[in-house]
Amino acid sequence: MSQTTKRPPLGRGLTHASDGVFRNIILALAMVIALIFVLSVIELTKGGLPALQAFGLDFFTKSDWNPVEKVFGAASMITGTLMTSLIALAISVPLAIASALFIAEYAPRWLADPVGYLIELLAAVPSVVYGLWALSAIAPLLAKWQLTYFTGEDPAKLETFTKCSELWASGTTNFQCFFVPSAADGRGFALATLILTVMILPYTASVARDVIRLVPRDQREAMYALGATKWEVISKAILPYARAGIMGGVLLALGRALGETLAVAMVIGDSQAPLLSLWGNSNTMASTIANQFGDAQDLLHRSSVITLGLTLFLVSVIVNLLARVVIRKLTPAGIK
């Protein structure tokens, strides 16, 4: 008979000691993250305190931003941040989910892997490259279209533009005029939204592809056994199971869009005036910080820019908290 040699058991005291050391290391690392968060809030609040004391809630509700007269209001920047992010999200999410479904469910392996790699590669491109691409390739096309609109021979378009120009001059707009070109340089809100759409698409697409592939094969086969079509399998077996992960990717993309700085700053136009046309110049909190922080020598001006950073920081925190709540609600009960 062969005898097996048993390894002597690890001493109880050593086991407890190693567990305690490991627990303390993990706790210390977690506390470092919490400490960085608290210190960031404290420093941003300290830097933004002069602006908050000078303007109070008016800083968040008014749109006047004039460093010369030392009047600062961030309403237009907050609106610009939310509008560019949400519109870019609304455009990119259907494209991202469609591409994820194609890669995971339709494309053969020899095609799915290269396409998936190319989509993920979009997330690795530096934002400055996106900005340069937008200025050199997309902006001239938009400018050409806008100039054609201005100089076109259609009397109706010319009359519409004339009426809209009068409204814009008075600081107002309407639904029709919001979609009429207000400039002919290609830059502005629409270009910033378009470039954001391209930048955030890979985040949702990559996460959606991975969670779709994680759907148990039994669910697919059970639906096919019941005579379901490909679309019925996707809509009733795959997407409901993967919806929590997909929503996580959507909210990750939203957080990326809210904080995008350099590419948006290069193309949005840096105008503090309220947005009167989809094609007009605008601003976001991140782009204003990038454009003005280095030149903000006055105490109140610098404090106002720092307060923008604090606002953007808090908005990002709120988005992450909402993400946790939404994902918890959408996660199937069996895998919570």
UniProtKB/TrEMBL annotation:
The keyword Transport applies. PROSITE patterns: ABC_TM1 (PS50928). NCBIfam families: phosphate_pstC (TIGR02138). It comes from the Bacteria. It is found in: Cell membrane. The gene is pstC. Belongs to the binding-protein-dependent transport system permease family. CysTW subfamily. This is Phosphate transport system permease protein. InterPro entries: MetI-like, MetI-like_sf, Phosphate_PstC, Phosphate_Transport_Permease. It comes from Deinococcus lacus. It is a multi-pass membrane protein.
